Amino acid sequence: MNSSLLFLIPLLPLIGFIINGIGFRHVPKSLAGVIGSAASLGAFAISILAWNAFEGQPQVVKLFDWISIGQLTIPFAFQIDQLSLLMLMVVTGVGSLIHIYSMGYMHHDEGFGKFFAFLNLFLFFMLLLVMGSNYVIMFIGWEGVGLCSYLLIGFWNKVTNYNNAARKAFIMNRIGDLGFLLGIFMIIQTFGSVEYLEVFAKAANGSFSINDTVIVTITALLFVGAMGKSAQIPLYTWLPDAMAGPTPVSALIHAATMVTAGIYMVIRSNVLYSLAPATLGVVGGIGLLTAVVAASIGLYQNDIKKVLAYSTVSQLGYMFLALGVGAYTSAMFHVMTHAFFKALLFLGAGSVIHAMSDEQDIRNMGGLRKHLPVTFWTFFVATLAISGIFPLSGFFSKDEILAHVFEHNQIMWGIGLFTSMMTAFYMFRLLFVTFFGEFRGTHDQKHHLHESPATMTIPLIILAVLSAAGGLLNIPHVLGGGESLAHFMAPLFELSKQVNPDLFEGHLEHSTEYILMGVSVGAAVLSILFAYNLFMGKKVVPAADKDVTGFPKVLQNKYYVDEFYEAVFVNPMRKLSDLLYSFGEFLIDLVVNGTGRLVQFLSGRLRLLQTGETGFYVFAMVLGILVILAWNLLLK
Amino acid sequence: MNYLPSDYLPILIQLGLALAFIVGTMLVTHSIGPKRNSKLKDEAFECGIESQGDARTPISIKYFLVAILFVLFDVEVIFMYPWAVNFIKLGSDGFIEMILFMGLLLAGFYYIIRKGVLEWEK
Amino acid sequence: MLPIVLLSILGLVVLFLGFQKSKNLLLPATLLVLAIVLVANFLHWNDMPSLYFKNMLFENKFTMAFSGIVIFSAFLIVALTRGFVDDESAQPAEYYTLMLFSLVGAVMMIGFENLIMLFVGIEILSVSMFILTGSDKKNLRSNEAALKYFLMGAFATGIMLFGMALLYGATGSFNLTAIKGYVMANNAPSAMLYVGLLMLLIGMLFKVSAAPFHFWTPDVYDGAPTIFTTYMSTIVKTAGFAAIYRLLSGSFSGIYSFWWMTLAVITVLTLLAGNITAVYQTSFKRMMAYSSISHAGYLLLSLTALTNQSQSAIVFYSLAYSIATISAFGVLMLVAKETGVHSYENAERFEAFNGLGKKNPLLAFVLTVSMLSLAGIPLTAGFWGKFFVFSSAADRGLTWMLVIAILMSTVGIYYYFKAIIAAYMREGELSAIKVSPFYRLILIATTIITLVFGLMPDFLKGLV
């Protein structure tokens, strides 16, 4: 394939953005959507070409010399290797589906053209992020997707809350970026280059020992950036708020692509991270903590999108957990399967919201299965997948992560397993409450219920197929598969293996693996049954938390068990959930917003210095001069 | 001859005494003097004539303009003296530079006249 | 040194053009002068560095680049003046001439080789600015600003002159190279040199509004007519930084260990004072005044580092900052004029931009790009400015300052985005503003420059 074609991949969405962005008042609605989707599909098509032409060696395609300061030269170049190809497929593939879906979903919106312009711009930056051949281009994309996320969260800008959510997301991301930027500067200082290939070659040439302070610092700083972008504790609270944006945005940006940028970055820098097991420990710890905390919060959310948002945070935690134990391939695998089923879940939720005339509270839904069959079945597939039921995609990726964690540390594995139980529980709670039982909405809503148009259902079906079959990519040996993804990605980690072989050692017995799989599927099934019992059997509607009569027999039979669950499991869990929720929403907000407040407060104080009196200004100046002179002449 | 810092001590003492005397006198007069205020006493004294209005009346800007222009052109003449003294030494270069200088000055003068700054009644 | 000569002579020509009945010729004439000077400035680009006027002035690529920036900025600003034709009490010829003359001062500051030239340059520039600040004669705030600026400026000049005198006393010369020779030859320079350097620096830091000598800035920038605020916040700053850079790198790099800590503390203070106080402002114009203080802080960061990257970093930063500031103020002037019809006190607040995006998409876009650039968001020139400045600091190993600077740039986003939010996300009754084609062209040009430099920061290097 002609390598100059590669530049078309990010260029097409940019062109789409320019057409829709500049002329969004003039481009007719029907055309705007087509242009946006065509740009995305075009990028996808070229990505496939690039995939086919790939020969196994990283290929750097330089466009021009971009910046040169001193000895440092930063070219504007793209790097095509296994990792960027995988990300390309996910970003453009899922991105295209979501573009098509948006044509239906945003049909009634007056900012239709603007929406597609932003979506294309996002795609452009995301592609820069994954294709760039150095950290600076990655940073440009990184900031760019943040900006687009800001624009799209605040897309319905009439509501002040949405704007605040947008600003919160942006500023929290910037805090993370602070770390990232510092990391880049340290890389420049240490390696004298920001090109991936050069940096990694220099890092692996033996001059750095394991846990070298410089490397640990660099990786820690980079991880701070990842924490912001991928919503890890303590910088995760922006993601649930970000659900204020239109649902396709939540699916594309806040589930499938942008939030996985942090994971991409760690995998990209795997050589550095392998050199710094200390940082990896922190990564894994934070990932695990985030996974548990977010999953437990998800248990008691009633907003359909909020449940999915916390679930996303939790799954991202999972991925970082995988990175923390050095299972880079597994993390990438989970990024991909997660992109499929989480995008599907969000789009399904969007379809529900669309049908319910913008209702998002699951307490007012119920029984939608009959009215929205396609949405229901696809949603069901995704729910099974995320819960890790064999043989859907989520089973393979999650199981692989858990297996690696088990090798590493059994306690962490236990917590991980517990998290996956919670995941299965709240996802099925969502499914049951939304799609089963009686309809609890208003009469008008009931009247209005309809299955979404084909532009929306077709992407759902495609994603459902992917969610179901995505696991085929990397079937483990133990199940007779070839671990094709692992083989494909292996060259990426050769340097890592060279610098820190210990990290990749350890192998599980086949029998252990079977047991682990059994345990995890069993645990998931158990919590599904529990959810079934609670929400189908007892017909509990989360709002009232009271028993609904109608199946008294079932109630009575299960009463003590339920009480037992209530006392031992649910209540403490709820307490914990509440506690963690308040911890998350208040304490962390306190710290983050508190910083903002502090700045505001200081600003108010400092402002008072500005009295407007020349006398005072001169006084301040004289004081300044005296201090400077005294300090320099007397104290030094 | 070398002076040590201690040799300056008498001066320091004298300085301190002088300051103390001034401050002391001011404080003492302030505290022991009687204070009687009356309207008549606080009034400004203007040769026995009743004072009228504010002393800070605006004066026509033209006074300042003329004054500042006088200073400006008067000061410029100062540059002529050293030039005249070194006339031969500076030679033709100096002459050209002086012409330039005078040219600029005259340009300013022309500007003033065209602006009508020197017209008193307008 | 052609620019100085040309500016002086052609400035006089413009002044006398003012005696013409019709004032319509003044704007094109001034623009023509600036265009000529801009070309003249780059005539000797490929020549070797050289000294002029009996070793008084110095010229190399660095000084030419800086002169180019100030002249180009002046061109853009003059283009935005619209001839002052709608204001009866205005004196356009005098304003233009003062701007041209002040550029003479700026060019002198940039290329000084002798401290006397530095002083003369600063004074020419400052005195012009005092007058222009007070040019809105009927506005009390403008008068107050001018007087304040003058008083404070005179004070700072005194300090600076004192510093120069002490330097002369210590080294026996006003010449930068001679001073450098003295500094290099003496391992332990006298206290007189130290005090002289500090005093001189303080005087110059005042001019670029570094904390704690920045207090005049908000009042003066706020009170002055917006067009001259633009002029002050771009040209005076740029020239001031060029002068400080030349002073420090030209003479005092040998005693870096002596002055760097002082400058570092001042830098941090400036960053904090500028960024944090800006958060509270309700007036866009006042916010821009504080933002100019904060940008002084970033530039000072690069000067504190004083590596061989610093030079190109401050050139790029000044250019990016100037262009973005000019387009932001350009939009403000249009909007303030429109809003001022309804409510005078709202004219320069953030609220003035409410609903700008609906009716005036171009202006809103221009404003957004300039805000993004000032905030340092990637793909704008401002990002690379910050990037270069930060990387020069990283090169010197000033990590703690870097952390503060990046944190403060996060604070910056908060207040710059206030303008963007007002423009796009708030409702307002702003109607479509009529923008003359030329004005529009200038705004589009500044925006394109910002974006082009954002995409290709090496563009400048590619040109030469």
UniProtKB/TrEMBL annotation, chain A:
<feature type="transmembrane region" description="Helical">
    <location>
        <begin position="335"/>
        <end position="353"/>
    </location>
</feature>
<feature type="transmembrane region" description="Helical">
    <location>
        <begin position="411"/>
        <end position="436"/>
    </location>
</feature>
<feature type="transmembrane region" description="Helical">
    <location>
        <begin position="457"/>
        <end position="479"/>
    </location>
</feature>
<feature type="transmembrane region" description="Helical">
    <location>
        <begin position="31"/>
        <end position="54"/>
    </location>
</feature>
<dbReference type="GO" id="GO:0015990">
    <property type="term" value="P:electron transport coupled proton transport"/>
</dbReference>
<feature type="transmembrane region" description="Helical">
    <location>
        <begin position="249"/>
        <end position="267"/>
    </location>
</feature>
<feature type="transmembrane region" description="Helical">
    <location>
        <begin position="112"/>
        <end position="130"/>
    </location>
</feature>
<dbReference type="InterPro" id="IPR001516">
    <property type="entry name" value="Proton_antipo_N"/>
</dbReference>
<dbReference type="GO" id="GO:0008137">
    <property type="term" value="F:NADH dehydrogenase (ubiquinone) activity"/>
</dbReference>
<feature type="domain" description="NADH-Ubiquinone oxidoreductase (complex I) chain 5 N-terminal">
    <location>
        <begin position="66"/>
        <end position="116"/>
    </location>
</feature>
<feature type="transmembrane region" description="Helical">
    <location>
        <begin position="514"/>
        <end position="535"/>
    </location>
</feature>
<dbReference type="GO" id="GO:0012505">
    <property type="term" value="C:endomembrane system"/>
</dbReference>
<feature type="transmembrane region" description="Helical">
    <location>
        <begin position="374"/>
        <end position="396"/>
    </location>
</feature>
<feature type="transmembrane region" description="Helical">
    <location>
        <begin position="74"/>
        <end position="100"/>
    </location>
</feature>
<keyword id="KW-0812">Transmembrane</keyword>
TrEMBL record, chain B:
<keyword id="KW-1133">Transmembrane helix</keyword>
<dbReference type="GO" id="GO:0050136">
    <property type="term" value="F:NADH dehydrogenase (quinone) (non-electrogenic) activity"/>
</dbReference>
<dbReference type="InterPro" id="IPR000440">
    <property type="entry name" value="NADH_UbQ/plastoQ_OxRdtase_su3"/>
</dbReference>
<comment type="function">
    <text>NDH-1 shuttles electrons from NADH, via FMN and iron-sulfur (Fe-S) centers, to quinones in the respiratory chain. The immediate electron acceptor for the enzyme in this species is believed to be a menaquinone. Couples the redox reaction to proton translocation (for every two electrons transferred, four hydrogen ions are translocated across the cytoplasmic membrane), and thus conserves the redox energy in a proton gradient.</text>
</comment>
<comment type="subunit">
    <text>NDH-1 is composed of 14 different subunits. Subunits NuoA, H, J, K, L, M, N constitute the membrane sector of the complex.</text>
</comment>
<feature type="transmembrane region" description="Helical">
    <location>
        <begin position="63"/>
        <end position="83"/>
    </location>
</feature>
<keyword id="KW-0812">Transmembrane</keyword>
<dbReference type="InterPro" id="IPR038430">
    <property type="entry name" value="NDAH_ubi_oxred_su3_sf"/>
</dbReference>
<feature type="transmembrane region" description="Helical">
    <location>
        <begin position="12"/>
        <end position="32"/>
    </location>
</feature>
<protein>
    <recommendedName>
        <fullName>NADH-quinone oxidoreductase subunit A</fullName>
        <ecNumber>7.1.1.-</ecNumber>
    </recommendedName>
</protein>
<dbReference type="GO" id="GO:0030964">
    <property type="term" value="C:NADH dehydrogenase complex"/>
</dbReference>
<dbReference type="Pfam" id="PF00507">
    <property type="entry name" value="Oxidored_q4"/>
</dbReference>
<keyword id="KW-1278">Translocase</keyword>
<keyword id="KW-0874">Quinone</keyword>
<keyword id="KW-0472">Membrane</keyword>
Automatic annotation (TrEMBL), chain C:
<keyword id="KW-1278">Translocase</keyword>
<feature type="transmembrane region" description="Helical">
    <location>
        <begin position="64"/>
        <end position="85"/>
    </location>
</feature>
<dbReference type="GO" id="GO:0012505">
    <property type="term" value="C:endomembrane system"/>
</dbReference>
<dbReference type="GO" id="GO:0048038">
    <property type="term" value="F:quinone binding"/>
</dbReference>
<dbReference type="GO" id="GO:0005886">
    <property type="term" value="C:plasma membrane"/>
</dbReference>
<feature type="transmembrane region" description="Helical">
    <location>
        <begin position="191"/>
        <end position="216"/>
    </location>
</feature>
<feature type="transmembrane region" description="Helical">
    <location>
        <begin position="254"/>
        <end position="276"/>
    </location>
</feature>
<keyword id="KW-1133">Transmembrane helix</keyword>
<dbReference type="InterPro" id="IPR001750">
    <property type="entry name" value="ND/Mrp_TM"/>
</dbReference>
<dbReference type="GO" id="GO:0042773">
    <property type="term" value="P:ATP synthesis coupled electron transport"/>
</dbReference>
<comment type="function">
    <text>NDH-1 shuttles electrons from NADH, via FMN and iron-sulfur (Fe-S) centers, to quinones in the respiratory chain. The immediate electron acceptor for the enzyme in this species is believed to be a menaquinone. Couples the redox reaction to proton translocation (for every two electrons transferred, four hydrogen ions are translocated across the cytoplasmic membrane), and thus conserves the redox energy in a proton gradient.</text>
</comment>
<comment type="similarity">
    <text>Belongs to the complex I subunit 2 family.</text>
</comment>
<feature type="transmembrane region" description="Helical">
    <location>
        <begin position="97"/>
        <end position="125"/>
    </location>
</feature>
<feature type="transmembrane region" description="Helical">
    <location>
        <begin position="228"/>
        <end position="248"/>
    </location>
</feature>
<protein>
    <recommendedName>
        <fullName>NADH-quinone oxidoreductase subunit N</fullName>
        <ecNumber>7.1.1.-</ecNumber>
    </recommendedName>
</protein>
